[in-house]
Amino acid sequence: QATENANQTDFLTMMEEVVSTHPREDFVDGWTPVPVGQKDFKGRYYFEKLKLTPVDKQEHYALRQAYIEGLMWCLAYYYKGCISWGWFYPYHFGPMLSDLTNLEEMFTKIEFDLGEPLMPFEQLMGCLPPASSQLVPPKYRQLMTSPQSPIIQFYPTDF
Q1: Are residues 139 and 83 in the same domain?
Q2: Segment (H or E) for 53
Q3: Could you tell me if residue 36 is inside a domain?
Q4: In terms of pTM, does the model score above 0.85?
């Protein structure tokens, strides 16, 4: 407990130092929230975050289905175990909760393929940023950092 408290104090001290010595602009990433409650909030949210318009019905459906799949995957993972080693949520943002209605038809279409578990280094490479490539064996590092890597698109350095 004492070590954990000391580590937390060290961390907070370090963060205060970093924040106090850098201008606010260093911590702003260009992300701006879509103000809730303003006119056409939902339409602006979908367009700004997902580049979807109201006429993109199939894309809206795919977004909602992927989100529901994610909820089902998470529940199954904690109550039954892994139901798919390869499933992932393909979007950076979710649908509006008000759009998660009339989902009965969707439930009958959702299926998961168990697949094969990833190897430990593959799992690491799936969640580490390129700046942490030193945590994987040298053979794998180039895949995370080299511009010629066939999977470099999964390791952005600029957001």
Answers
A1: no
A2: none
A3: yes
A4: no
Of 63, 74, 131, whose CA–CA distance to 100 is shortest? 63
Q: Where are the beta strands (DSSP E) in 15-158?
A: none
Interval 90-137: pLDDT, tens: 998 999 999 999 898 888 889 999 999 999 999 999 899 999 999 999
Instruction: Please tell me the total count of domains within the chain.
Output: 2
Report pLDDT for 41: 86
Residue with tokens 């010629």: 148
Nearest to 64 by CA among 34, 97, 109, 42: 97
Cβ atoms of residues 65 and 97 within 8 Å: no
Quote the domain boundaries for residue 49. 2-109
Specify if 32 maps to a domain.
Answer: yes
**Considering the domain boundaries, does residue 105 fall inside one?**
yes
SS3 assignment for 5-39: HHHHHHHHHHHHHHHHHCCHHHHCCCCCCCCCCCC
